[in-house]
Amino acid sequence: MNSIGSPYSFVVHPYLVAAMASLDASIADIANLVSVESPSRDAERVAASARAVADLIARGTGLSAELVDSPVGPHVAVRATARPAVLFLGHHDTVHKAGTLDARPFRNDAGVLRGPGVFDMKAGIVQAVHATRIMREAGIDTTHVSM
Q1: How many angstroms separate the most distant Cα atoms in the chain?
Q2: Omega within 30 of 0 (cis) for the link into 121
Q3: Domain ranges of the chain
Q4: Alpha-carbon gap, residue 84 to 64, rounded angstroms
Q5: What distance in Å separates the CA atoms of residue 83 and residue 136, rounded to the nearest whole number?
Q6: Out of 5-14, 34-43, 120-129, which region has the weakest mean confidence (pLDDT)?
Q7: Averaged pLDDT, 40-45
Q8: Is the pLDDT of residue 9 over 80?
Q9: Which of 7, 34, 82, 106 is the most buried (most CB within 10 A)?
């Protein structure tokens, strides 16, 4: 058996090892974002979700996230300070109405995460944050990252 329990011999990339080591933290971050309901047409709730996303980005990457006002609630923006830039694009609002969490709370069913906004697309935001953190910890210049 190799280091990940497979009988096959192959090289495991250190970034994969880092991602697997942060799996529990990633799941906790997804749970935290999902716990902030963010119906698309509810500017107050979208603003609360935007603040949660901006906080996650700052804590997780060390990058500065700004809130950009819009009529339907703020957008979260991280602006690359170096070129060329790479863009992680996502959204944190959901189609689910306020109160959906009462009937469908976040849960982890044997590694399958469930709850409003998990798949579309709060987990994707968390993936971008953790990927950026892993790059930074590996010595990669993250000033090229926009979100």
Answers
A1: 55
A2: yes
A3: 25-146
A4: 18
A5: 16
A6: 5-14
A7: 96
A8: no
A9: 34
Contact (Cβ atoms closer than 8 angstroms) between residue 65 and residue 76: yes
CATH number, span 25-146: 3.40.630.10
At residue 45, the 3 state secondary structure works out as helix
Sign of the dihedral through C-alpha 23, 29, 32, 34: negative
Structure-token pair, residue 7: 């009988």
Residue 83 amino acid letter: R
- pTM value is 0.90
Contact 44, 68 (CB under 8 A): no
Q: What is the pLDDT of residue 12?
A: 80
> Exposed, middle or buried, 24 (CB in 10 Å: 0-12/13-18/19+)?
exposed
